[in-house]
Amino acid sequence: MFHVYKNYPNKIQALRDINIHIKKGEFVFFIGPTGAGKSTFLKLIYRGIVPTKGQVIVDGINIARLKPGYIPYLRRNIGIVFQDFKLLYDRTVYENISFGLKAIGATNFEIRQQVKKVLNLVGLEHKKKVKPHLLAGGEQQKLCIARAIANEPLILLTDEPTGNLD
Q1: Can you tell me the distance from the alpha carbon of 110 to that of 135, in angstroms, rounded to the nearest whole number?
Q2: What pTM did the predictor assign?
Q3: Which residues does UniProt assign to the signal peptide (predicted)?
């Protein structure tokens, strides 16, 4: 990010002159009070919003200038754990994870393998046929983490990733 500003219509300036370069393989944590701009920062990286001013460069591409049709291709390399989960409550745990893998063109075999792998990793293999509304808050959070890492993304963004974990 180079000289990034983000102002919202209600005159709130969420970010002011942010400059940061994150290298491949780095782990970066942003800590601050509610309203400090942490979620806004993440939304800029996955092109959920665009900056008011400045450049957001992801993998060499200024994503603020990215045409809407290319945004899904950008997001194929980004795993996101949302603060508000964004689960598909009418689908099972398995289907929530497989949905994104299908969207990127994974084969049925690859989907089965990856879903099994990430469910084992987060300890939800026994809940694969359960719908998310029947899971405890911590289990829903684990499902979100599994979904975010299923496609082995280059970038992993997490917004309050441990907020509901026991």
Answers
A1: 25
A2: 0.88
A3: none
